[in-house]
């Protein structure tokens, strides 16, 4: 029998065979300068890439900020506009006073206010409007509105009942004032009924009242009416200044003050009725 031979053992700590290398390691073997060039190139290119990326992002941010600022200024400009809306005939009792307040606003405002008559009122323009609305109303004999004013009041009522249509409008951004002209001969219930109905419906659709409702008695002389009308004009301009965008006029405190004068509507209107008589 042949003796079993043990294979020779590698001495402990002896040299080991080389492990196989990948193709990249084999290629770079002995070419240390290539790695140096690569790292140097990355050291130059990476900061440049980061700068370009920063420059691109910064330019995008500047365009975005400029666009938002333009939108903000356009919004403030829209909310600073004014329109006189006449719910009555162009040759009716309220028409001359509508022109008086319109001329007064033209003298005081940089952007000339518009004047809209209910006979030709475009409700789409009103739904898009966001500024100040000065309503001049006319109540005819028996406490009745003119046909165009009646149509407008009914449209407001329909708008209040239609939540989808109301969301498309900007009535929550409108700040309004109401001036009514009517005869005390119509009795307490009919005296300036259009103005009182309009107040209720504007509040229902979310508009903000900035002055007390001014009710004028057409049985008074023009001199008496003019004296009160001039006082109202000054008060209107003061309140418009307070409620300009960015002036703090939309705070809860001021809104509460405006609401207190209007929520006591019937009492105030009765007082005005007595004064006008």
UniProtKB/TrEMBL annotation:
Keywords: Membrane, Transmembrane, Transmembrane helix
Top-level division of the source organism's lineage: Eukaryota
Spans traversing the lipid bilayer: 34-54
Location of the Flavodoxin-like domain: 83-237
Spans annotated as Disordered: 244-277
InterPro entries listed in its UniProt record: Flavodoxin/NO_synth (IPR008254), Flavoprotein-like_sf (IPR029039), tRNA_wybutosine-synthase (IPR034556)
Record's protein name: Flavodoxin-like domain-containing protein
Organism: Caenorhabditis brenneri (Nematode worm)
